From TrEMBL:
Family: Belongs to the short-chain dehydrogenases/reductases (SDR) family.
Entries under InterPro entries matching the protein: NAD(P)-bd_dom_sf, Sc_DH/Rdtase_CS, SDR_fam, SDR_subfam_1
Name assigned to this protein: 3-ketoacyl-ACP reductase
Signal sequence range: none
GO molecular function, one term: oxidoreductase activity
Taxonomic source organism: Mycolicibacter heraklionensis
Keywords noted in UniProt: NAD, Oxidoreductase
Length: 273
């Protein structure tokens, strides 16, 4: 297959559904083979939406293979550094190389500042920050070994540029991801590896399932004047996962070969409101 990512291999975390699935399928449609992981199971108690399942990950495999590309998948928690390294090494052994990393896995938990427990804070930071670091550390050595350069994309959030009311832990974690992308970009640049962060606003994914809406509503009641802080400029309030995947695919491709250490919003302008 020909495409902007022909003959390349991409590693995607949180790939069972939502944005992660969209990234995997979009890059496969552009010619990339995919290594993918997802926890596909229980999330921390503070997370109010439904978790992904092994069946969700299997559906991502089916969709990628339907494009004609190969996919190697594993059920791994991104907090498990050794498990991630093993999954990436297995994928590289089967697919032959690694060129692209998309650190997409993360969680969100709407809570007023004084409702966040120490455990809640640790869980969100461990998944969103340590899990992202683990992802890069597990994959970057394989890109370096290939001596072809590559692209690493960290999925942050509008909360990583501005802030997200009622999510102190989430906002802190996504600001950390933004800084992490710049720091990795500085040190990996000598290997022709570009590192950027992507900052979506609201996206139509399974993060909106379960008790997510009611939890956010309850948190907003504690300080209603903050509820409009991420109002978009454009008529569309909520993006689709495929909208974000278009930006990710561009960053993965040679079309963005001079772009690194950038924080790229795909947020309908909401971080400027």
């Amino acid at each position: 297959m020909t495409g902007r990512l022909a003959d390349k291999v991409a590693f995607v975390t949180g790939a069972a559904r939502g944005q992660g699935r969209a990234h995997a399928v979009r890059m496969a449609s552009e010619g990339a083979d995919i290594i993918a992981v997802d926890v596909a199971g229980k999330l921390p108690d503070c997370v109010p939406y439904h978790p992904a399942s092994p069946e969700d990950l299997a559906e991502t495999v089916r969709l990628v293979q339907a494009t004609g590309q190969r996919m190697v998948s594993a059920i791994v928690d991104t907090r498990d550094y050794d498990g991630l390294r093993e999954a990436v090494a297995d994928g590289v052994a089967k697919l032959g190389r690694l060129d692209i990393i998309v650190a997409n896995a993360g969680v969100a938990a709407p809570q007023a500042w004084d409702a966040i427990s120490p455990e809640d804070f640790r869980d969100v930071m461990d998944i969103n920050v340590t899990g992202t670091w683990n992802t890069v550390m597990a994959g970057a050595p394989h890109i370096i070994a290939g001596k072809r350069g590559g692209s690493i994309i960290l999925i942050s959030s509008a909360a990583g540029i501005k802030m997200q009311p009622f999510m102190v832990h989430y906002t802190a974690s996504k600001h950390a991801v933004t800084g992490m992308a710049r720091a990795f970009a500085a040190e990996l640049g000598k290997h022709a590896i570009r590192v950027n962060s992507v900052h979506p606003g609201p996206v139509n994914t399974d993060m909106g399932t379960g008790d997510m809406v009611s939890a956010l509503g309850q948190a907003m009641e504690t300080n209603p004047q903050l509820s409009q802080m991420l109002t978009p400029f454009l008529p569309t309030w909520v993006a689709e996962p495929e909208d974000i995947a278009g930006t990710v695919c561009w960053l993965a491709s040679g079309d963005s070969h001079l772009v690194t250490a950038a924080a790229i919003p795909v947020d309908q302008g909401c971080t400027q409101y």
